[in-house]
Specification:
Helix content is 35%, strand content 18%. It has twelve helices and 13 strands. The strands form two sheets. Strands 1, 2, 3, 4, 9, 10, 12 and 13 form an eight-stranded mixed beta sheet that branches. Helix 6 (163-177) links the parallel strand 6 (154-157) and strand 7. Helix 6 packs across helix 9 (242-252), helix 7 packs parallel to helix 8 (223-230) and helix 10 packs across helix 12 (333-342).
Length: 359
């Protein structure tokens, strides 16, 4: 089915018009359009995947991703789990730890964010980043030395539909320091709002982001961190220990990875900082067509080197990043075929594979 047939006349006309305004030519030939569920407006993947869409069109690729704004990765896994109509048509942004946590939906700790379990063994397509937000916090009050010092304070976190920003941060705070909305002023809001609250002094600490790649030697310092830096105030960070991350993993059957950031990785970070990381992927249901998965992964692999020069989020791109965490069991068959053609499938052996929780 062609792009225009999939979108419908009105939506297709709107897309072509938007591309024209952006200086991007309309597709020269029919392409398969694949909606991708992302995150709130303003998040990095929205901009990154919009540029990717433009480049796929310019390169006349056989497939095109259509970025869809959503309340976040936690929302994505719930929506995909409930809406079988998307299983054969859509892909979504997610993380290894989120797929694992979804199996605990409806539990005491998870029911606020995910009222029911989603026990679907989603199939991975490609890795796109390692994310650290939600597993450490930023503050301008350097008298605060640890997460435990935040009990009774004001904390700005992401939306409840966001995994790292909103959900993982709550789980880490509770599991490590016993901090909950019952004993602390916890506020859920968008990344832009929570960052501004910290800048304005309306809260004492806030989530802030950092990205990395499999070697953890190259890092992304996204816009919210730069906004904090631009205030000229000293930023201090509240990290976690290896034992803290192990405790969270034991509690939730997750595979967060502890990493110690070298000094000066983040602005104002003059000491090593322990944080947790997880792996972010594009994923799909097993029913997603094999040919579409193949076209998508092959196209992204081929265009990746060019994308490195076009958007900061893609600056960490590599074949190793795309394949890190994949295995014969957790990867979509169409994606495996693409990696074998690209000559990259053996690169997966450099990383431990994502695992599903025991049920």
């Amino acid at each position: 089915m062609s792009l225009l047939e999939k979108l419908g006349t009105t939506a297709a006309a709107a897309l072509v018009g938007a591309l024209a305004l952006a200086g991007v030519p309309a597709p020269a030939r029919a392409a398969d359009a694949v909606p991708v569920l992302l995150c709130p407006f303003g998040c990095g993947p929205i901009a990154g995947d919009t540029i990717l869409m433009n480049q796929l069109i310019k390169e006349n690729a056989p497939v095109m991703l259509l970025p869809q704004e959503t309340p976040g990765y936690m929302y994505n896994v719930r929506e995909m789990g409930q809406n079988e109509g998307k299983w054969k048509t859509s892909v979504f942004a997610t993380e290894d730890t989120l797929i694992q946590l979804a199996y605990s939906g409806g539990s005491e700790d998870m029911k606020e964010f995910l009222p029911e379990p989603v026990t679907i063994p989603w199939k991975l397509l490609y890795g796109e980043a390692w994310w650290g937000q939600g597993k450490f916090l930023a503050t301008f009050d350097c008298s605060l030395k640890s997460l435990a010092d935040l009990k009774g304070k004001r904390i700005s976190l992401g939306l409840r539909g966001q995994s790292d920003w909103g959900v993982f941060s709550r789980l880490f705070l509770k599991t490590i320091a016993g901090i909950t909305p019952d004993n602390t002023d916890i506020r859920h809001m968008t990344p832009a709002q929570l960052t501004q609250q910290l800048i304005d002094g309306a809260t004492d600490a806030a989530v802030t982001p950092i990205g990395a790649e499999p070697t953890k030697t190259t890092f992304i310092v996204p816009g919210p961190v730069r906004q904090l830096e631009a205030t000229g105030k000293k930023i201090c960070y509240l990290g976690v220990s290896q034992a803290d991350v192990d405790k969270v993993n034991a509690e939730f059957q997750t595979t967060f990875e502890w990493v110690e950031l070298p000094p000066n990785t983040l602005p104002g970070q003059d000491q090593p900082l322990g944080i947790g990381f997880d792996k972010a992927f594009k994923a799909a249901h097993a029913d997603f067509p094999e040919e579409l998965a193949y076209k998508l992964v092959k196209s992204v692999g081929e265009i990746g080197p060019k994308m490195k020069e076009l958007h900061a989020l893609w600056g960490i791109w590599s074949p190793e990043l795309m394949t890190c965490g994949l295995s014969e069991e957790n990867t979509h068959p169409g994606a495996i075929r693409a990696y074998k053609e690209l000559g990259w499938w053996d690169l997966r052996n450099k990383c431990d594979p994502m695992t599903y929780p025991k049920t």
